[in-house]
Amino acid sequence: MTIESILGAIIIGAIIGALGRLILPGRQPIGWILTVVVGIVAALIGTALAQVLGVKTTPGIDWIELVMQVVLAIVGVGLVAGLRGRTRV
């Protein structure tokens, strides 16, 4: 694992998390750092899931994998926002 791959994961995770948060309706009481973390986790799980399901890797953008990652980010942001909303008094 190189610095470039770590930075790439953070940047992709931030984009995936932001897309998930933008698509999810309503207000989410989570910060941008937590959004990036959810995005990174969603990107990693989405990539692993796409490989398990046999989604082909293409020379361009892997749209099916990207959609899977964004859907997982939407679910993740919703779960984290729901958990954070419950713990607030």
Describe this structure in words.
- This protein has a domain at 30-89.
- The model has no long low-confidence stretch (mean pLDDT 86).
- It has helices at 3-23, 32-53, 63-87.
- By secondary structure, it is mainly α.
- Alpha carbon gap, first and last residue: 41 Å
- From the helix content, strand content and strand pairing, which structural class follows? mainly alpha
- Number-wise, the strands total 0
Query: What are the secondary-structure elements, in order, as H or E?
Result: HHH
Low-confidence stretches: none
Beta-strand share of residues: under 5%
Shape: globular
Helix content: over 70%
Strand count, sense and barrel status of the largest sheet are: none
Number of helices: 3
| Assembly status | single chain
Computed over alpha carbons, the radius of gyration is 14 Å
| Average predicted confidence as pLDDT | 86
Which helices and strands, and how do they pair?
Layout: H1 3-23, H2 32-53, H3 63-87
Structural key phrases:
89 residues; mainly alpha; 76% helix
Concise structural overview:
This protein has 89 residues and is mainly α. The protein contains 3 helices and no strands. It has a domain of 60 residues.
